[in-house]
Design a protein that fits this description.
Blueprint: H1 2-15, H2 23-59, H3 67-93, H4 98-101, H5 108-123, H6 125-142, H7 146-156, H8 161-177, H9 184-210, H10 214-222, H11 227-235, H12 237-248, H13 251-269
Helix pairs in contact: 1-5, 2-3, 2-6, 3-5, 3-6, 3-8, 6-7, 7-12, 8-13, 11-12, 12-13
């Protein structure tokens, strides 16, 4: 455990941005960071809570009050998988600290878990805040008490585990069974292509959202069109348990949720 914690702290430092020594550059960096937080980050996080509140308030009229939060968690898990893949792949196979760590008498599986934990913390800070605000919006829409928000905190800080385990498993399979990706330059090129694809999809989605009829979607969902949701529940089996534990203050669902996360970590560890 001591080795795991020490290595996690070390890997967190290697992931973090190097310290800016120049005072002028440091001032400009923190100024720009403050502007981004105030005018982009905070409004975006608040909009997530407003979206979940509105979706829950509309869907509860047709008996599907939990779907808004569940779909939001699914979308967030997909984004976690998308944007964590390259980071985790680089940390596991291309980081410069590997050759220095391996000669030490530390179990390689401990190194693996430490790297995974460091990436998990570094990549999901924004997701944690988005989930907290969204859960608050969800509880306000259903008039749930503070105890429901408190029980949700366990899920908020563990929800990205499953999509990141998928990233880790795919990374290991990719490196074991193909010779295509063997250096950072190839990773960089793939990342550029992938991000361009995401941007194109995002631009197209803006046009689609402008024509999106939320009332029609609610009617279709109420009539039994649950195909996408059922597929996502298979891919991310922990999300439904998380939402149920928040909605019904269910300790059983919370324990099952933690069990699913634990099973995924064991599979990754093995």
């Amino acid at each position: 455990m001591n080795s795991y914690l020490a290595l996690t702290k070390l890997f967190m430092k290697t992931i973090a941005m190097s310290t800016i020594t120049d005072k002028k550059k440091r001032f400009m960096f923190y100024l720009l960071l403050s502007l981004v937080v105030i005018f982009i980050f905070i409004p975006f996080v608040l909009s997530c809570g407003i979206f979940v509140y509105a979706a829950t308030d509309n869907l509860k009229e047709v008996g599907y009050s939990t779907i808004g939060l569940e779909f939001f968690c699914i979308v967030l898990s997909i984004f976690t998988f998308t944007f964590s893949f390259n980071v985790l792949l680089n940390q596991l196979y291309f980081s410069e600290d590997i050759e220095h760590i391996l000669p030490f008498p530390v179990n390689q599986q401990v190194v693996l878990l430490s790297k995974f934990t460091a990436c998990f913390i570094a990549e999901n800070i924004m997701e944690f805040l988005m989930l907290i605000v969204s859960v608050i919006g969800y509880c306000l829409a259903l008039h749930l008490g503070i105890k429901h928000i408190l029980i949700s905190l366990v899920g908020v800080f563990t929800l990205p585990i499953v999509p990141m385990v998928y990233c880790g498993i795919i990374s290991m399979l990719l490196m074991n069974f193909t010779k295509f990706i063997k250096n950072k330059e190839t990773i960089r090129k793939i990342s550029i292509v992938f991000l361009l694809f995401i941007m194109i999809m995002f631009v197209n989605s803006i046009g689609y959202l402008q024509k999106f009829d939320f009332d029609k979607y609610i009617v279709d969902f109420a009539l039994g069109n649950h195909r996408v949701l059922n597929v996502m529940r298979v891919i991310f089996p922990h999300i439904y348990l998380f939402v149920d534990s928040v909605t019904n203050f269910s300790i059983v669902s919370l324990l099952l949720y933690l069990l699913v996360n634990f099973i995924y970590i064991v599979i990754f560890y093995r």
